[in-house]
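ugh ok so i messed up the first submission bc i forgot one of the chains. this is the corrected input, ALL of the components this time, i swear. 365 residues overall. if the numbers dont match what u have on ur side tell me asap before i send this to the collaborators (the ones from the other lab, u know who)
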Amino acid sequence: MSSTSAGIASIGLQLPPLFMPVTQLAELRGVDPNKYTKGLGCTDIALCPNGHDAATLAVGAAKRALSRWKGSVSDIGLVAVGTESAKDMSRPLSAWVAEELGLSGVIRSYEVKHACYGGTLALRQALEWKWSGAGAGKAALVIASDVALYALGDPGEPTQGAGAVAMIIDEPLVASVSPTSFPFSSPAFDFWRPVGDSFPSVDGQLSLDCYKRAVIECFSALIGDRNARSMLTEYHAHCFHVPFPKMVKKAVLHLGAELGWSLEETEAFYQRKVEGTLEWNQLTGNAYTASLWISVARALVGLKQGTPITAFSYGSGYGAELLELAAGPAAASAAWASDVEKDLSQRKPVDGVGYQRLRGHALAS
Ligand code: COA
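and heres the new structure output, hopefully the right one now
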């Protein structure tokens, strides 16, 4: 395999073993459940019990990705974890992963932080490492893993969630990724977590505006001087970072208006090209760095080799990047879908009392 043909060779996902329907949270907070289900588009919040965190999710996802790859850990020369759920200000989350997987030796191991954009940055760096030849024939293990929790009663509480996606960068069996991508960044305090704070601070409206502006900037760069309508419909699906599902719809409506499409046209575009990619996100809630890659993993299921999709990554602070992917031969059978089916079928519901207990523990630990 030439280094320039490297892409995503294998994907593994890991969801936590507990969840709470947002309707339960609405009851607990005395809020009309329609605000969470219709207003924000949320369904469930994936939750981690005591002993589970971003590291255990990352390890679980990595083991699943490795189990479906023809190589072994001795073929890996880079392990990068994108997360905003760091366990330590110095020690990278990748060290916990490397310990569990027995990864040591001639390996570059590090953590990437840029809010929800960190996983995409880790992926791009790993691809560029392979494409440049710096990997010297080795593969990379990239993981996006997060546990998204807000302060009790925070407006972000119904959007909470967790999950991890691991990707091995080697032959493009799952998907190839275009070397050209469309980044955009502009410094802002839309969402931040000062050192020592347990939960994020959010300027909710500003974060929505930053996200929408980034969508316009990145898609405008992709479209260039081509016809937006015919060009964007050539992609089978458009995946987005999913802080909550309604955010994605708001952004698509904003993009449609910017492109001069009628509301009906944009709604039809959203239903055909975007809505289906959110299916798993609705059941996990926001998994920060992993959210976009959960959506991409869903969108690739069953695709014929060569089918193109896009992936829009957004991280507060803020930075964004739009990627183009094409399905590889393994997308048709999509073995990774079984990770999600298994985790969803085995996870246990938590009611309001169980949630309070869990959060009490989370606060104390
Ligand atoms: N039935 C149906 N819809 C209802 C409703 C009801 N009873 N009550 C409210 N809504 C709708 C509102 O009209 C609004 O819809 P709109 O945005 O289309 O107008 C939506 O529910 C949310 O209501 P709002 O009052 O704006 O929610 P909020 O201010 O309590 O919280 C966020 C919304 C996004 C600010 C909050 O969830 C948050 O801070 N999230 C974290 C940050 C984030 O994810 N940012 C995204 C970019 S990264």
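quick check: The two ends are 47 Å apart (CA to CA). that seems consistent at least. The chain has two domains: 3-174+335-364, 182-331.
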